[in-house]
Specification:
This protein has six helices and eight strands, in the order βααβββαβαββαβα. The chain is an alpha/beta fold. It has one domain: Rossmann fold.
Length: 224
């Protein structure tokens, strides 16, 4: 879908046990707040989350699993597994190739952790992910052993990190730890929990962050 004149296009990655439709529904206030500035498009993670050994609810998806034996993920636990990440990277790459261009990425929770990995890959020169900035909500540094190398060098991709001071799922210190890996990161604190805030104070910060990129791009999201 082409962006309306003056709008950036953002590819949005949902959290664990969500899907694109659920994330879209839960960001209605944000989409309204950003109207005229950004258009949000949503992508399904490729993996269904198993439910009691069954095939899984099609609306319950994940980007990778920290415990592949039972198909679960826990952001708080150390793990030597990141089962499913390669397929998720390919899904995002396909979205760029088939639905792009996108000016930026937005991620929530596990989706934000994936966005951080994509930023690191882009910085390494991976051509599959051509974007200019990242918006990370309730993000965290992955505790999967194979992911450690993504945080070895400072990440220079422009970013804004949205942190819920009352978040009980991804505690604020975890989001701040991730933000510390980004050069010049902007941090947006809000008093709420595990959700995407879109009240007036956050709207002002989002628009200030996004508008610095819209001034340098054409209507189709390409750099001018």
């Amino acid at each position: 879908m082409a962006a309306r004149s003056g709008e950036l296009r953002l590819l949005c990655l949902h959290g664990y046990r969500q899907d694109a439709a659920i994330f879209r529904a839960r960001t209605g206030a944000l989409r309204k707040a950003l109207r005229g500035h950004a258009q949000l498009e949503f992508l399904d993670a490729p993996h269904l989350v198993p439910a009691g050994g069954q095939s899984g609810d099609p609306s319950s998806r994940g980007w990778w699993f920290s415990n592949p034996s039972d198909g679960t993920f826990n952001a708080l636990e150390e793990s030597e597994s990141c089962s499913g990440l390669d397929e998720s990277l390919e899904a995002v790459a396909s979205a760029f190739a088939e639905r792009g261009p996108f000016s930026g990425l937005m991620g929530f929770s596990q989706g934000a952790a994936l966005v951080a990995i994509l930023c690191a890959l882009q910085q390494r020169g991976d051509p599959r992910f051509p974007f200019r900035f990242a918006l990370l909500v309730a993000g965290f540094q992955s505790k999967a052993g194979p992911h450690r190398t993504y945080y070895n060098a400072p990440i220079a991709v422009p970013s804004i990190h949205v942190v819920g001071e009352s978040d009980q799922v991804i505690p604020a210190p975890m989001s701040m730890e991730l933000a510390a890996h980004f050069e010049g990161a902007r941090t947006l604190l809000h008093p709420g929990g595990h959700f995407v805030p879109a009240a007036a104070p956050q709207k002002k910060e989002y628009i200030a962050f996004l508008d610095q990129f819209s001034k340098a791009e054409g209507d189709d999201g390409t750099t001018t």
